[in-house]
Amino acid sequence: MEIKDTYKTIQTKGEEVLFKDRNSKFFGYTFPVSSEEDVKNIIENLKKQHHSARHWCYAWQIGTENIRYRINDDGEPSNSAGQPIYGQIQSFEITNILIVIVRYFGGIKLGVGGLINAYRTTAQMALEASKIIQKTINLDYLISFEYKDMNKVMRIIKENNLNITKQELGLDCKIYISVRKQVSNKIKEVFSPLYQVKIKKLER
């Protein structure tokens, strides 16, 4: 059975989109995020940018295996904004993303059905205006060894095209590598001939 070890995300902020319905304006934005801190900062900036808007509704999802997400209706009727936005994140199967939709009220109430349609459509438009990319899920390992084994370790790293993320080289050497999940179960195997070399999986 093949392990699924790829996910979809966006690398950069998407283009601004605009959806209008009965004088209400909905501006849609997508942002790549990796923490709730990122989300907070982006929303603060958008509130400054659109200080006279009525609502800043959003949904975000972070993670590849342990998924975290949040939706926010920001004063709109319950589940009429955040949920339809999050529905588009699920529909596009995308993660590490924040979608914010800024609404300027146009004087005419849209009703719950109208709001759901407006927020869903704006979120879809925002995702379609974003460059969606595919990335691999990688696991991190620490290889610890004595300096005398350096050449052997480096040869194995080179032969297996392993990606070094950090090195600490002294009498005792530490090399950190990042390995695609699909091939990670073979990692200990490739180093097994070097019995003095220790390899440990790191938790993120």
TrEMBL record:
<dbReference type="InterPro" id="IPR036956">
    <property type="entry name" value="Impact_N_sf"/>
</dbReference>
<dbReference type="InterPro" id="IPR020568">
    <property type="entry name" value="Ribosomal_Su5_D2-typ_SF"/>
</dbReference>
<dbReference type="Pfam" id="PF01205">
    <property type="entry name" value="Impact_N"/>
</dbReference>
<dbReference type="InterPro" id="IPR023582">
    <property type="entry name" value="Impact"/>
</dbReference>
<feature type="domain" description="Impact N-terminal">
    <location>
        <begin position="22"/>
        <end position="127"/>
    </location>
</feature>
<protein>
    <submittedName>
        <fullName>IMPACT family protein</fullName>
    </submittedName>
</protein>
<comment type="similarity">
    <text>Belongs to the IMPACT family.</text>
</comment>
<dbReference type="InterPro" id="IPR001498">
    <property type="entry name" value="Impact_N"/>
</dbReference>
